[in-house]
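Why show two proteins at once? Because comparison is the fastest way to build intuition. When a single record is shown, students tend to memorize it. When two are placed side by side, the eye starts asking what differs. So, the first record is below.
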Amino acid sequence: MSTLLFRAAPLRRLPLAVLLPLAFASTSQAQSLVDIYEMAKGHDATYQSARSQYEANLAKADQGKAALLPTVALSAGATRTQLESYAIKGSPAPTQDRPYTTQTAGINASQPLYRPANLATYRQSQKGLELAEAAMSQAEQDLIVRVSQAYFDVLSAQDSLAFVQAQKAAVAEQLASAKRNFEVGTATITDTREAQARFDLVTAQEIAADNDLRVKSVALELLVGKAGLKPKRIQSGAKLPAVDVQSIDNWVAQSEQHHPGLRQARANLDVAKLETEKATAGHKPTVDFTLGYNSQRNINGTAVTTASTQANVATAGITANLPLFAGFATQNRIREAAALEDKARSDLEGAQRQVAQVTRTAYLGLQAGQGQVKAYEAAEASSQVALEANKLGYQVGVRINIDVLNSQSQLFQTKRDLAKARYDVLVGQLKLRQAAGVLKAEDLQPINALLAP
């Protein structure tokens, strides 16, 4: 397999005013890909939202344990009553008009012994942990790809601007040559006008390339929340990292096992099954163990006696409850849960198909990208030879000025396409690992090693 190399853009023809900013941009406070990724982790709103959701899901998962643990409550109260009691005519009951106070305090505990719905809720909460971890993993992988794409978009835009400026300088030389030849009578005015038209076209392309660089830089700055970023460039002559040569079926198999989206879909199916169990539990009995200690103090008696008393009551028991009829609510709840379980199963099947398609697309895209790099490298060499041949032919009179201009345009377009194809291969490797669900922050290190120190 041929070696894929990064080569420096041909800046030897650029004016000094263009070279100096590029030189300073590549050395003054430049950031590597890993540096920008770490900054993005602390600023990107999408990632921060996913992290907050992850923490909320962890707390929600812990709530499921509460249904299996005992509940303990402490209660206290005081009531003052004004009693007025009068005898009915002919009754021997005495007349009363007096106040009395009732004070109560107690502690009561309950421990579920058999509550199948509570057990299903707890198991659902544990599946919630899996959902939270999968969602967080998906957010991290998405951030890696978004940062890498934005990073190399900026480098690609810088290369495009540099190539357009180099092409502009070359066309300017050709325009000056055409004017000199016209003045001495060795060329027609057509050559001058063709060169001027090409120069004006390249000037418009330069403006567009400069604007594209500004837009791509703003997109990268939004990810990290800092302005004036200067991404480090790829070292001249650096080799592309070796691509994992697994077959496409192996990558698809990895995606079925590790992809966060599929892990979430499987967990959702398990949660749906447990929801069906919870609904079915509506027909089952519940058993609780209860324990209590309560005290009541009656000051100045009660409604039936004037003696002050205090009663302390300790209780322990088992309470069982068997539902008999709930207005068909349980039956309908079971039907609803069963339908939602079927939906979750279909969602999982759809997610498996989509992930397999995305993985195959990423694999084929990476393979095509590598082939394009090789083809563009050959096209670059051929375009360079063609340009030199056309220049020589123009000098001896067998080629016209437009031939040289077309050769220059083809050469610089090929250089732009080659640079972009190399960046696409680097990002394509990350996208393939993301599609397989195995992308990690450590996968940035081989790419980071290609950057200038």
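Second record. Ask yourself what differs from the first in the token line.
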Amino acid sequence: MFDNLSDRLGGVFKRIRGKGRLTEADVNEMLAEIRTALLEADVNIGVVRDVVERIRVQAVGSKVSEALDPGQQIIKIVNAELVAMLGGETLKIAYASQPPTVVLMAGLQGSGKTTSAAKLASWFKAQGRNPLLVGADLQRPAAVEQLKVLGAQLNVPVFSAPGDPVQTAAAGLAEAKRLGRDVLIVDTAGRLSIDTEMMQQVSDISAAVKPDYTFLVIDAMTGQDAVNVAKAFDETLAISGVILSKLDGDARGGAALSVKEVIGKPIAFAATGEKLDAFEQFHPDRMASRILGMGDMLTLIEQAEKVYEKDEAEKAAAKLMEGEFTLDDFLDQLQQLKKMGNLSSMMGMLPGMPKEMKNAQISDDMVKSTEAIIRSMTPEERRKPEIINGSRRQRIANGSGTQIADVNKLVKQFSEMQKMMKRMGGGGKKGGKGGFNPFGGGGMDLSAALGSRPPSR
């Protein structure tokens, strides 16, 4: 998501970066390209008009900074506008003084509402809460069954009862109180399009459970249509925020960049993959940083801290610092990285990553091939890959079901990665927030060592 917008804005900034001064013609040309980039990203036209005008006022009227050249000032202005468009600040969840904290899920059919309800339950559980899911979508066949299957995967109980959705939701609230559950998530029915009956039903459910938060689930792939949906729901429910589903898809980003500006409600959460734990709070500043090609190391470090044991991380950091990082260690790190999610998306979070590497395709098959090659080596070969001669390479290729060229590439790239880490003094020192940063400066080399390739054109 946002790839095209990121590429277009990157081109704009590349042309103005380093200029001693910007003429009025430079500013007008830049604003025209930013306008085109936002429109191509399917951003609401009214939002585009307002944002471009705000950038114009700031670009023309801003005082010259001694610390920044004109190009850097423009990037700073555009970054601030992107952050504002995406919501400004991360929504902070405040829990009810008298449990449970009630969350109402609303949205059109097919938006990913039921799955998002389960993902939200998983997120609350990770915060140390005890959620209860309520299946009040009695309209769609198998909706309640789907919720029960997802709940079972998370070990989160699901309550539902046939009959009236409003009474089911109210009974679910009573059940949460009886069980001592401190978070209640109510999944409601959707339609293929907004209609009076659906809006009345979700309004009645809201009146019955009095939610602390009402989240509207929007498919990130829907673009500008999402704005109309959000306006209609907000008029009926006064939504608290938006949950963007399918943020990892090929959407252009119009929904994310338009919703806050049009209805004044923030994006609260985003689903970043198919797995139930691929769900996170939405950070406007981090997303703006990704769009502008500046990476998102904070999110990477947070993901790493979830899967890395501190003691093991410290040992790995020590090996990196001492230049003793072996293929065994690389294999261990690879196993940990796989737990963090999609490797290709992680590459895009690394700052300064070239477009070709940021969009590198690192498939599961490539990872499996790399693992097979390393596992086909002897312990000594993993410790000292420089001893791998022609006959050893043939044996390793035969044992891993790969070609000698694949073995050569892995050994060469790993050697280069070792050299780079030594030069950096072990790029994997402790990262921010006291956690281990497994990426160091070696993200690009990791991609190369996995045999990744730029997407075909």
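One difference worth noting in the second protein: The radius of gyration is 25 Å.
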